[in-house]
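User: My collaborator sent over this chain with a note saying "see what the structure looks like." That's all I know about it. Can you take a look?
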Amino acid sequence: MATVNETNFKEDLTVRVFDRFYSFDVNVPVNEYDAVYSYFRSVMTTDRAAGNFATSLFRIAQNTNIPAMTLLAGFQGQTGVNLTVNLAYYLNLIRSKATLLGVNVSATPNFYAARAVLQ
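Assistant: Without extra context I'll predict from the sequence alone. Here is the result:
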């Protein structure tokens, strides 16, 4: 007789992580998602923030080919600003160089170099 605590190996043991804004969609093992989400939930104040950070971590893992659990190990032990800065660093690796996260002062090109750029 099956119980609630028994694993049903006939079911797919992955979680579908998606971000509608960036059209990001990936299937990840359920135990990895639980570990990542649980960590971010322990250091974040809301479920939504934890979910967004978890989604971002899996996006980074997919684009950089670094395992999600390796990235999580780098984030563990950090809270607040350090966690945000670390995540911004990895997100900046996969974003356009014109739209960097966490940069207060935008880079202003030399006047003559800016004029030479074709539009």
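A starting point for your reply to your collaborator: The helical segments are 30-43, 47-64, 68-75, 80-94, 111-115.
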